[in-house]
Amino acid sequence: MNNIITDTANNHFFRMIDDHPDAVVLSDKNFDISYSNKNFLLLFNDDRINSENILIILFSNTDEQNRVRRNISELNSNEIWNTEICCSLNKEDKGYALLTVYTFIINENQFYVFNIEDITDRKTAYRKIQDSEEHYKSIVNNISEYIFSTEFDDSGKAVSFYHSPKCVEITGYMMEDFKSNSNLWKDMIYPDDQFKVFEFLDNVMKDKINSSIEHRIIDKNGNTRWIYNTVSLLCDESGKIRRIDGFLLDVTDKHLMTENFKKLYKAVEQSPSTVFITNSKGIIEYVNPKFEQLTGYTCSEVLGKSPGILKSGETTRDEYKKLWDTISSGKEWSGKFHNKKKSGQLYWEHASISPVKNETGQITHYIAVKEDITQLVESEEALKKAEEDLRKKNMILEEDLLYAKKIQQSLLPSELPQSDFLKVSYKFKPLLAVGGDYLSFFPEVNSLGVFVADVVGHGAGAALFMSLIKFASDKIYPECRDQADRFMNKLNNALFTVMNSYFITAVYAVIKREDDGIKISFSNGAHPPIMIYRKKTGNIELLQSKGTIIGFFDSVNYTSGESFLYKGDRVYFYTDGFPETVNDDNEIVGYSKAAEIIKEAYHEDCELNLQNIFEGLDRFRGNAEYEDDILISVIEII
């Protein structure tokens, strides 16, 4: 039975009962004592406690015991029964106590809570008041309770009222307020309690009995307060009521304590976390419904057992020893368990285990609050597996990219063509390790073919298509050489059947030395236009010809254009990453700004010229990131 009672023992409500200023007893339905706090033993000395039955201890008369038993047995869950009793207290032959009884449910078991307040001193003072009016007033003015008194004439009319100074502290009203308004007391009664209080007073007057009631009032400041109201009648020889005396005790704090106890108990019972309590030896004394729901064990199956009933065997002895060393030293322990349900199913839970100490600092219980984290742990394990799979795939991808990078580097010109009338240079800045820009030179004695292409995409796929482009362009060149339009048409026909998911832009140009001068002939397939820097004027010209992307359409006719070149002129080939560079304001370079950068970057040395162009791009870009590969080639007429 003690196990059931201490189910409610935790760091809050267990100590709440034990530290209660009154004597508190919990009994079962037969009124046998299941639990009592330390003040019960102080109020009823051991030699006075001659029975385990609370009614026998409190009431010596059998008829009185039976009457009280009937009254208490008829209590509903939200009702309270009060009475004033006379019994032996503190080795005195006679003492007085205020008895409050209500029902309480713990783990589906009904108990009665007996709150026994020693009012012997107060009762003695009250009786002295009745013996002497002067002595009455002297004592009343110094007593801690609120004393009231009403006197009646022969016709039963109230003719005199008295309210002790304590009324100010409890109600907020002065004694003069009650004298000036005889209905003030009735007006203070909480609206929902008025019927109950008036009915109580009618019964007291009719039956001419002394009795008590607990109810609410609204004080002068509008606050609701709970009071314990005791009424006593003084009648003359003929039985007429001559005076009603009584006292009011402010029980707001005690009532709130009881309500907090109930709230805390309900909070634990309804908690979404598993909660169980053990004694200092680790034996389970309480589990909440969530424990039953999660583990499959009922409360009755685990009471008196060790939490080891949940062990899966995965936690080592050393880990359990560390746990016990921590909590037995007064500290909190938290960690994870892989435990086993009654069904044998394993589950993960995060636990926080704390010691519960009494007023001397001694550990009396341990409370564990646990959360089911099975889904979280399974998700973490799935994530780790996915990360490991991704790591392996990334390793394969990195190997592929490394291989693709080697392919791309092998495709770009490793040596610059040498010519007695041309100076050639280029610079490439890939966005990723492997880009999609392509450059090829076809040198002859009196000419130089230049082919620039841009595969839409990056990575290994782009590198593979660059290999295809190199193969196709190297094969086509011997047939076309200085016929730029024919070169582009043949290239389009060669790539049309294989470019189903990729496409390219490209420009092909031939710079040729002829009898009448140096000419450039070119054909463009949706590629950025060639720029010519005229040494003589310092201006930039754009060479454009009509043509769509390569390999996307079957029947396309690429045209060509041409222009004369002179000593000191420079021809610039580039991919779209140059004019499409974006700055912090989301502005793109464009062809006009690109031309300005080229002019500002001019240097006698072609390689330094290219370096200056990229530095100019960086200044324009600011903190914005590059979004594409950039390839620029410069050819100067010497």
Write structural notes for this entry.
With 638 residues, the chain is α+β, with helices and mostly antiparallel strands. It is built from 20 helices and 25 strands. The strands form five sheets. Strands 2-1-5-4-3 form a five-stranded antiparallel sheet. A hairpin with a 5-residue loop joins strand 13 and strand 14 (346-357). Helix 16 packs parallel to helix 17 (459-480) and helix 17 crosses helix 18 (484-496). It is elongated. The protein starts with a helix and ends with a strand.
Q: What proportion of the residues is helical, as a percent range?
A: 25-40%
What gap, in angstroms, lies between the N and C termini?
Answer: 110 Å
What general outline do the C-alpha atoms trace? elongated
Query: Number of DSSP strands?
Result: 25
**What Rg, in angstroms, do the CA atoms define?**
50 Å
In which order are the strands of the major sheet placed? 2-1-5-4-3
Instruction: Give the strand content.
Output: 25-35%
Q: What would you call the structural class?
A: alpha+beta
Reported for the largest beta sheet, the result is: 5 strands, antiparallel
Nearest-integer average pLDDT? 87
Number of helices: 20
Low-confidence stretches: none
